[in-house]
Amino acid sequence: xxxxxxxxxxxxxxxxxxxxxxxxxxxxxxxxxxxxxxxxxxxxxxxxxxxxxxxxxxxxxxxxxxxxxxxxxxxxxxxxxxxxxxxxxxxxxxxxxxxxxxxxxxxxxxxxxxxxxxxxxxxxxxxxxxxxxxxx
Length: 136
Hints:
By secondary structure, this protein is of the alpha/beta class. It has helices at residues 19-32, 51-59, 70-84, 99-106, 121-124, and strands at residues 6-12, 34-42, 63-66, 89-93, 110-115, 129-132.
């Protein structure tokens, strides 16, 4: 019997800011296993410009989280998933400000960082796998 890995996805809008990038990450996540949770974090100031991204995200089953300070909520959600969540793997695209949360998450789950630009060494050092996605 084959057991699918369970996958959670946490995305920062400023890094995953096109419908194509959102779709690409969700397709990648589904290749790794069953999607159990997916969220994209935006500040309230980004919401107007993010309309097309939010629409496609919602169609793909991603919950938009709109907060004045998105980093704090994103860090809390990553830690909650790492400590109490059902996912075996956590896919993340976020700023270097969340390195402490990534390090803590890695202690409990497999953490995969995804980006389209070069991935900073300080992030590579605290995740299990760093994946540079190809531009479409």
